[in-house]
Design brief:
132 residues, mainly alpha, binds zinc ion, transmembrane
């Protein structure tokens, strides 16, 4: 049976072990519960909080993802030949980062969890077949 790739699991904010259960309590743009990680996976029961303050380290990932987004905006501006005015570059990067920061934070936590929790094919099969 085919399973989601790690990249799809990270981008769709799924459980790192079964790649099917929701990782966050709500959509990242729901600001009252912004980027709040669930206690357990609703599908396989994995405890998401391995240790206290586990997701603090995702700030390092968040920095890298933010820089990647800024570089991508700059490249897009360069393709459309809009890099004459530094103010336009600054405002475009700032605007994009403000609009995407909830998702960047969520994806960073997902990347962090996927770095430490391995995918388990047997559990994913059980979840898919409804045996778990
Ligand atoms: Zn799971």
């Amino acid at each position: 049976m085919k399973h989601k790739s790690m990249l799809v699991s990270i981008l769709t904010l799924k459980c790192p072990r079964c790649r099917q259960g929701a990782f966050l309590e709500a959509n990242p743009y729901k600001l009252s519960k912004m980027n709040k990680v669930r206690e357990h996976c609703p599908k396989c029961g994995l405890k998401y909080h391995i240790e206290p303050s586990f997701y603090t380290g995702s700030m390092y990932v968040s920095y890298g993802v933010g820089v990647a987004v800024a570089v991508a905006v700059f490249v897009i501006l360069a393709i459309f030949d809009l890099i004459d005015d530094p103010l336009i570059i600054f405002l475009a990067i700032l605007g994009t980062l403000i609009l995407t920061f909830p998702y960047i934070g969520a994806v960073s936590k997902s990347i962090w969890a996927h770095m430490f929790i391995k995918f388990d094919k047997d559990i994913a099969e059980k979840v898919k077949n409804g045996d778990l």
